[in-house]
Input
Amino acid sequence: MNAMEQWSFPPRFDADYVPSAGSRYWFPVRETMPPAERERAILERLQRLTRYAYDTSPFYRRKWDEAGFHPDHLRSLEDFESKVPVITKKDLRESQSRVPPFGDYLCVPPDEVHHIHGTSGTTGRPTAFAIGRGDWESVANAHARIMWGMGIRPGDIVFVAAIFSLYMGSWGALSGAERLRAKAFPFGAGAQGMTARAAMWLDLTKPAALYATPSFALHLSEVARHEGYDPRAFGLKTMFFSGEPGASVPGVRDRLEAAYGAHVVDCGSMAEMTPFMHVSGTAETSGMLCWQDIVYTEVCDPKTYVRVPYGERGTPVYTHLERTSQPMIRLASGDLTLWENGPNPCARTYPRLPQGIFGRIDDMFTIRGENVYPSEVDAVLNTLPGYGGEHRIVITREGAMDELVIRIEIAPEHHARGADAHVALRDEAARKLQKMLGLRSKLEIVEPGTFPRTDFKARRVVDDREVFRAMNARLGQ
Output
């Protein structure tokens, strides 16, 4: 194998290729090459990609003409980052509104579309994801390669405990497991009673790996214990997560590892960027690596979209390097992260997001001049021994500044100890939250089981003035 191990555009992969069992890497050259050498190859790919998109997509041709960019102008990565305008989810929705259902950024004939997924559309027009047959094979190869880096091997049972619907996460994990020659178990999630059945099947099959959202995995561990199972006895070696922040949050990650005795891997960016695992940890490296030869990732200032130096925070901007249908070229994610560029424990020479993706910038709220991210609250609460696994952040935007109450569910064994345990949890939470957030918040300790658990992504922020007023009055009493 040569030429950067199946590096071509359009991508062509050997469907029979699997590394030797003892190899740490799927593609040793691509994953460990000097970054400058990889960047030269990425530049050549971007030159081909932009020419391809300009010739096949009215969306990109119009966008770039308006910005004064032409593929012939692309002579360096600096040119790409400074001359190619970003695109947003709003641009994609408008394109699909003009040219339904897939938009005029579909760069292949409609009869080449192999998979259709999309957003739910619960808050507006849904976005349709059209993935060509060749691209679906590329997604499977990319995910298999990254899952190999997590330590998953052919023959391992991979238990996919996520909803099989429009959601791309479950399907992407399934495609990777199948290409890896693993025993794919598409269990799903969401139906009534399914979590208890998941515990039964995990105990029966003893899979090597599980894919889910962090919220569901924590819920599953509670249900499993209630059903009489010890989650550590499931024998899981690797658990990989996407869909929400958590697997890179120390408190959440520690709870997952303690519950199951498995190695926790954080992965995943956006459904639009499938193969979404292009940011992912490995068996040796925590946080997320930016697998730059699959999707070229920049971390940029959220206002100017100028790349920020390593060691600073910004928003990821993504560009597909192996997609021909609906390729995203400088898609602004709207998320927040911090990146570094140094030696990785797995020896892969990619930039790293040591704390994963914090969450969406839109999720941030300001309390008395301090910026607060829900993942920061999650991180604190998950370190508290008396924390019962769920909470709600209630905010109001009435008046000059936001106000905040955090409702915290107490663990059953602590609840049984009486009022002193409630006071102790409240005081410890208040102290640690003030240290993390730089502000005081009002806290309410509630009984176990107060908040519903989820089979999907957790929604813990409530922006509701009436709820806030009621709780504020109750706390005042």
Notes: The chain has a mean pLDDT of 91. The first helix runs from residue 3 to 6.
